[in-house]
Amino acid sequence: xxxxxxxxxxYRKDRVIFNELNLSLTNGHIYGLFGKNGAGKTTLxxxxxxxxxxxEGTVTTLGENAALRKTSMLKDIYFLSEEMYAPALTIKKxxxxxxxxxxxxxxxxxxxxxxxxxxxxxxxxxxxxxxxxKKKVLIxxxxxxxxxxxxMDEPTNGLDIPSKTSFRKIMSMAASDDRxxxxxxxxxxxxHSLIDAVVILDNGSILLNATTDEIVEKLCFKVTDANGxxxxxxxxxxxxxxxxVVTENVHHIETKLxxxxxxxxxxxxxxxxxxxxxxxx
Length: 281
Prior knowledge:
The chain is an alpha/beta fold. The chain has helices at about 40-50, 70-75, 90-100, 105-115, 130-145, 160-175, 190, 210-220, 260-270, 270-275; strands at about 1-10, 15-25, 30-35, 55-60, 65, 75-80, 150-155, 180-185, 195-200, 205-210, 220-225, 235-240, 240-250. The strands form 3 sheets. Strands 6-7-8-3-9-10 form a 6-stranded mixed beta sheet, with helices on both faces. α6 (about 160-175) links the parallel β7 and β8 (about 180-185). The two termini are about 15 Å apart.
């Protein structure tokens, strides 16, 4: 559904963001995109949506050149920016104005998502809402578009703890086998139980693009005495229970993925991770 080949992007000559970046994303997954501040996560989402233009390489989204932003592509892709624009319209009027651009928009779903977020009055103006309430409305709208591709930049920023729980429930309801959801975030714990594929970006390159099943097949996450394990250790973190380690899964033990530990292990062992997963992204 999204294919990036040999992408070079720079804001200026001395600020290169991507150089020969390759990435392939398919439908049926909720991807989590992780990286340090300034790694280019938001820029990557905008390139996919045709809102930024690579100086070199090709970006194909839904079979189209993303930079051309053809109607055939735009009707099936939605980009929810962290910097959300909210016009001085009521929630009801906002939907009346913008829903017609998306032929699969489902008004019943929108109402249900708002209800789960505990927003019942659609006569409120968006500009009068708090950041958290505004974000709930725009998340509900984004999901109700039922576009084949949904790109989300830091969607849980500004949500309180109960709202984050509702967000995970709503995202699970909206996911489907023919939909690709790509979420950029620093809030690892918010997505831990939701995503089924991980993309890690660093220094203009994709360090990892793998499903969670592939990750736990090749890596092991456990609390142990680091000195007592015979598995190659990729990352070790001391805590009150002992040492939390990420090791190569040489004994084929099934463990629970910890994305925060995974991120640290990947950043510290880039070459070995590349060898273990042995894939070209």
